[in-house]
């Protein structure tokens, strides 16, 4: 039984990183972006003109669809006001 548990734990650790990634929709430098960086990392990379525009998504396609439906998609104009 211990071996089964250990094998399952090892499989979870070896799962592809993309399967465990979270995605966010941001307004960064007045443009909509979809990125896997968390809000702190994004603010560090893009500066203070960055704001999160929605919830955290488990799949890239969900974040892209949200950005398209609500803001016109990645690259569209936005503002952090």
What can you tell me about this protein's structure?
By secondary structure, the protein is α+β, with helices and mostly antiparallel strands. The protein is 40% helix and 16% strand. It has helices spanning 2-13, 39-46, 60-71; strands at 24-28, 31-35, 50-52. A hairpin with a 2-residue loop joins strand 1 (24-28) and strand 2 (31-35). The model has no long low-confidence stretch (mean pLDDT 85).
Largest sheet: 3 strands, antiparallel
Computed over alpha carbons, the radius of gyration is 17 Å
Shape: flat
Tally of helical runs: 3
Mean pLDDT: 85
Brief sketch in words of this structure:
The chain is of the alpha+beta class. It contains 3 helices and 3 strands; from the N terminus they run αββαβα.
Q: What are its keywords?
A:
single chain; 81 residues; 3 helices
Secondary-structure map:
Layout: H1 2-13, E1 24-28, E2 31-35, H2 39-46, E3 50-52, H3 60-71
Antiparallel strand pairs: 1-2, 1-3
């Amino acid at each position: 039984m211990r071996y089964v548990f250990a094998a399952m734990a090892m499989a979870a650790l070896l799962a592809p990183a993309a399967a465990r990634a979270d995605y966010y929709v941001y307004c960064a430098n007045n443009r909509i972006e979809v990125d896997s960086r968390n809000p702190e990392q994004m603010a560090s990379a893009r500066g203070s003109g960055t704001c999160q525009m929605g919830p955290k998504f488990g799949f890239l396609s969900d974040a892209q669809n949200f950005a398209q439906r609500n803001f016109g998609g990645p690259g569209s104009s936005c503002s952090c006001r």
